[in-house]
Protein 1
Amino acid sequence: QTANPPMAGAATSQADTLYRALGEKPGLVALMDTFVANIVADARIAAQFKEANVDHLKTQLVDQICVVSGGPCEYKGASMKLIHANLDITKADFHALVEDLQAAMDVRGIPFATQNQLLARLAPMHRDVITVK
Ligand code: HEM
């Protein structure tokens, strides 16, 4: 194995940049804390989370957002498609949740450009999450 293969370093540091901008693991733990608090207080979607295990949800979200932002984590949960398959999630629900994430990022002082980078990486998940067309 080459110590420094061409491009590998660049690709890694670029992916890792978002993870660092989000404050690494402690930043993500704090962000998911605020995010999930927003969700369960959001009258538009709170009912869908009534039976959710909030602590487990936060833990899984931290791992997943860590991976998505290029951090050194592993998401060991089920696929987005499987998890959300029977939850009757609409486009409006998805947008409400995204707003809750944006609000959480505002509260945590995450710069707008960083916010947009994370949202851009999460956006494609709508295909697996929105089940009510
Ligand atoms: C990009 C958007 C989303 C991401 C990244 C995401 C991520 C996750 C993850 C990682 C879990 C697993 C938690 C666990 O293993 O228990 C989960 C569960 C869940 N998600 Fe999502 N989700 C998204 C959108 C949504 C939306 C829009 C809704 C509904 C408004 C929703 C409702 C739920 C519910 C109800 C659970 C089950 C929680 C539980 O039973 O503990 N999700 N989501």
Protein 2
Amino acid sequence: MTEVVSGAGRGRFDNGGMVGEGGCVEDRPGEIRARRRRDAVEWDVARQMAFAVARPGRVVSRELADADGCVLGTPLVAPVAVPAVDRSAMDGYAVNGDGPWRIVGHVEAGAADPGVLEDGEATGIVTGATVPRGATSVVRSEDAVVSGDHLDGPAKAGRHIRRTGEECKPGDQLLPAGILVDPAVLGLAATVGLNRLTVVPKPTVAALVTGDELVHRGPSSPGRIRDAIGPMLPGLITRAGARNGPLAHLRDDRDALVEALRETQADLVLVSGSSAAGPADHLRAVLSDLDAELIVDGVACRPGHPQALAQLPDGRLVLGLPGNPHAALVAFLTLGVAAITRMRGLTLPALANIAVPGGVTCHPTNTRLVPIRLTPQGAVPVGHDGAAMLRGPAVADALAVVAPGPSEAIAARLLPIDPGARPWIL
Ligand SMILES: Nc1nc2c(c(=O)[nH]1)N[C@H]1C(S)=C(S)[C@@H](COP(=O)(O)OP(=O)(O)OC[C@H]3O[C@@H](n4cnc5c(N)ncnc54)[C@H](O)[C@@H]3O)O[C@H]1N2
Ligand code: MOO
């Protein structure tokens, strides 16, 4: 794991891009601040920094129905034995001893006390029903030869009986803390009789989509760009394991962004389209207005270079997504998913390696994120991968994380396009 040194690479942030290293600038009349332009951090380091700065939510008790997708905050310990009693694993006959036997009754699924079987006796039984005391095995109905009240068939001691405590005993730890609660975990919790789980709740992620030029219905036209980021975010947020907070559209206005960031209650606030150095790109100035601490100021990757992550004084995180839609997706999958992963109480997964049989040209200094399809031969680029294009990502399985280098990469790591996908192990 890349070490992230607390404080290193952080600092108060001003409207970058207009002055050089270590310069001073007047942002607003009478407001002079020292500023240092920082280098973009390496892609892997940026991801680790986003993970490191985020904080897991406080554990809460949740009804099972509300716990799917949360993370266990404490180990899951069985309060009872499972099975609670000896149960039949088959429909057929519970028998005592070797055959033949005399059939003396029938045990229904819900029978609380199935009674006692004496040597040489059998009783009809259904799968899951409690076996009578004294039963030594169960003969499956398809193996049973019945004549009147006489039964014959193969019997082997213990056969087709699920013994008390076979799955777990009281006090057994079934799962450690930190496990994702999925449907199987919910079923297991119910099996051992729990109604609630102690979990780290899902973080809430809100979004502010900025841009005077944006329209939200119909096509782009001269002077108008159809918002392609707003429609992506709710699905990305839920797939990343977070809850959707409000999504608002803002004009390119510094004061409006300050106000919106002050008011938006969420663990993480995404701000799109304000990340670069143009006259309408207010994010960094706004972060300064709000006394935010800059955590990541640009990432050495293509696309997604101007992405930024900051922390407001009250602990909320703000992620600046570049306006180019593919770059915004890359930024969410890089810094956003890393921060959300930590907030959820999970560890940041290592990314699988894969061959790139056709080779991909490396960027000399930046990590490239290239939309690819997974094939039996390895990762195959899908094309249409410009920073403003979503045509490539829309058909891709993953982004190939291509390390900087002088020539062609023949291997890369895989960042799933669907942040809810478990990382592949190849
Ligand atoms: N002088 C510089 N210019 C730019 C730099 C830079 O470093 N110096 N970086 C470039 C890169 S890389 C990117 S990415 C963009 C990031 O721009 P912003 O985050 O400030 O966003 P805008 O300038 O508002 O928009 C850029 C581009 O994307 C379109 N856009 C914005 N929001 C949306 C949306 N919701 N849906 C669809 N398209 C959107 C916008 O209309 C612009 O065409 O800056 C480069 N420039
Ligand atoms: O890197 Mo920008 O983020 O090219 O689109």
